[in-house]
Amino acid sequence: MPLESAIFASPGGGVLSCPRGCVQVLVMQSVTPTPADMSLVARPPGWLRQVMLVLHKDLLIEMRSGEVLTTSAFFALLVVVTASLSFYGGPVTKQLVASGVLWLSLAFATVLALSRTWQRERDEGALDGLLSSPVSRSAVFAGKALGVWVFILVVESVVLPATALFFSLDLSEFGVGLLLISLFATPGLAATGTLFGAMTVRTRARDLILAVVLFPLLSPTLLAAVVATRELLNQAQVAELVDYFKLMLVFDLTFVTGGLALFGSLTEG
């Protein structure tokens, strides 16, 4: 065999040295990825991680701007102060007025917070970018609802002491009961508001439509919270409020489950 036509190639894909004048051929070999190589491939985050990413985004934006909490807290505080000057008639009427003032101020602050939250998502196509990302629609809903719930709790931490101050309520006596009522009532407010806030975000009269649609849906949990708070301020024991807790829990579960299932279809288009 002539020297010029000799071909030398290594079995592993490299090239062996060959005498002068020979032809060198590089043989390509397929390589099977090892488990270590596969671990370096980026994987999409799990559902809970997606929820926490959306929540972290909303909280980080709010920490830098402060517009939702500032406007909502001041508005709710203004409602409490105005109502205390208008309707307070002494210790006899505090149970009748304080419960309604507390929850009406939180309801109005919730609508305001939802409007500001979804306006930020609408500006510059942020919502479209969020929905086109590889994140589950249900995770987007859960993260947004948790963010709104945190906002409501922060506003309530301002409104509750103000209500206690202006209506002469003893938080050492009623604080635990009010906290339990809040924990049962506010998740439903956040879930309902998030679901229908997403539905109205692309409409022109979004603020009007949101209020018109939202308040009738919030009525069951708001009424239950108002009556439970009134009974608590009338010296009722927490154990006597179990029926109201059950009603608020049913409302919470209904709208959380409905939001997880329907959020994707409501945000299409």
Describe the protein in words.
- By secondary structure, this protein is mainly alpha-helical.
- 72% of the residues lie in helices and 1% in strands.
- It has a two-stranded parallel sheet with strand order 1-2.
- The longest helix has 30 residues, at 137-166.
- Residues 1-18 and 21-30 have low confidence and may be disordered.
| Whole-angstrom Rg | 30 Å
| Topology order in helix (H) and strand (E) letters | EEHHHHHHHHH
Spatial order of the strands forming the largest sheet: 1-2
Shape: globular
Structural class: mainly alpha
| Helix fraction by DSSP (H/I, runs of at least 4) | over 70%
Largest sheet: 2 strands, parallel
Gap between N and C termini, in Å? Answer: 72 Å
Chain-averaged pLDDT: 80
Count of individual beta strands: 2
The DSSP helix count reads: 9
> Which parts are unreliable, with pLDDT below 50 for 5 consecutive residues or more?
1-18, 21-30
Tell me what portion of residues adopts beta-strand conformation: under 5%
In short:
The protein is mostly helical. Helix content is 72%, strand content 1%.
Helix/strand layout:
Elements: E1 7-8, E2 23-24, H1 35-39, H2 47-65, H3 67-87, H4 94-122, H5 126-132, H6 137-166, H7 171-200, H8 206-233, H9 242-266
Parallel strand pairs: 1-2
Helix pairs in contact: 2-6, 3-4, 3-6, 4-5, 4-6, 4-7, 4-8, 6-7, 6-9, 7-8, 7-9, 8-9
